[in-house]
Amino acid sequence: MQNDKFAPPPLGMQNDKYPPPMGFTSAPPQPGYPQPGYPQPGYPAYTTPAENYGGPPPPPPQPPRDPPTRVDPPRDGCFRRNQKNKPQANAVGAAGLIFISGGMNIAWSVGFRGVSYYQFTKHNFVAWFIGAIIGAFISTLLTNKVAKKYVLQFSSVLVAIGGLIIACTHNNGPGTVAACYLDGIANGLIFAPFMALAGEVSVPYMRGLVTSNLEQLLFGVGFLLQIVYVTSWTYSSYPSYNDFTAENMKGVLSTIYGFLALIFGSLMTIESPVLMLANNDEQGAIDALRRLQKPAVLTEETYDLLAEHKRYLAVNKDMSRGQALGQGFSTFVRIAFLRVLNAMSLSSFVATTMAISIYASHGLSSANAWYIGFALCRWLGTLIPSFCMESLGRKKPTVFGLIVSCILSFVVGSQYSWYTYMNGVSVLLMAFEFFAGMAFSATSSYLSEAYPMGVKQFFIALTFGTEMFVFLIINVCDYNLMQGYNYFYIMGGMYLAGFILALISLPETKMMTLRGAQELFSRFLNVRF
Description:
mainly alpha, Growth Hormone, Chain: A, 21 helices
């Protein structure tokens, strides 16, 4: 009991016995400040230094980011890289054989056709362009409904039949018209599907090479081949009805291209893995990606490409039809204007001016060499930048080629004079064709990667049809030989507008994924190189 008397009070009552001194009483809690006791919501709990030993707590996990849209090529050398990705070019290479036939027919239609021993009209020389427009329109109706291999096989048969008609007839104007229609329809049918396919089967660091070699370079090969054999042909002073003419030779070559395209296309064409993913065939997409590389085995890069295709598909699925059409039209204005300038650089007016300048300045004795030099300059202008698409880029050669072609066009207009016998015009036109080929070599790559997926084939076909329509209109018009300088002044002004348009609006898409290229084209202003 004695001990209980002197025992200290319970802890809870000690402050009652000894109240706090005046002036040291705790203030009532203020609003907006943490309250004493347990941790309050919105305020971090008090921790001891031991709990923080080793540094601050890790930050919360961040949402995953999409991989970069620019892809660096593997560091295994250019040759090995090309060999590894060679099946990608082979998958669309059969279409290139048909484009060679198309280039021959373009050269024939604009004036490089040799001596004709039958009565012809302008319809003969515009039939191929009309057929190409018809084929491009039909291709928009077949988008993603018919396998591209079947479209290629049908087009190959049309080219072979058209070639046989010309090869087996002599001095037959209606037969020539029919053959031009068939060949033009075949080229128009495969242009949009295979330009889209070339962009979708190629890895980002090979797309520029594959697409430019497929279209611009092989059309240029056909153009060059037509001029070479026509100018080298020996024409008889007393022709016989059964003579084998230069046109018969064109038919033989077209027949060969058609049959080769049918064989190679049936064996090597690979459908788009992007389209397979859109049709929920992931296993088919994986198998297609496997066969698009050498050796045809599944690798880590295969699955990386598959994942990138899925992201590209997801971006386009989130885009409404109106958004796709709006973005596609903005892109169409830029690319179609460049393709119109391409048609003007190879028109019948340019071919006629070249012929006049050769005969006036150099005579008939050296005409063949000048014609071949003209076509060779155009082909070399396309060849050189096509192999630099992923190193030099797309925008630099386009802008440089446009401004130099603009200057040369004005100079040709100023030198166009009968009083000076067209002095220097032939040389200027050869230089003009070289830089024009440089300016338009990248348009093939832009066509394959610029448009949104849902409207890609439609706008590619529309771009091709617009280019062919310009060829047709110029062929229909009569060329005023005395005032031909006006055409070059107008063309120079349009090339200047094209230079400004390309400088401020064309993006640099080298080594970029389809997703990244489409994103850049969604903006009209692209001033970076």
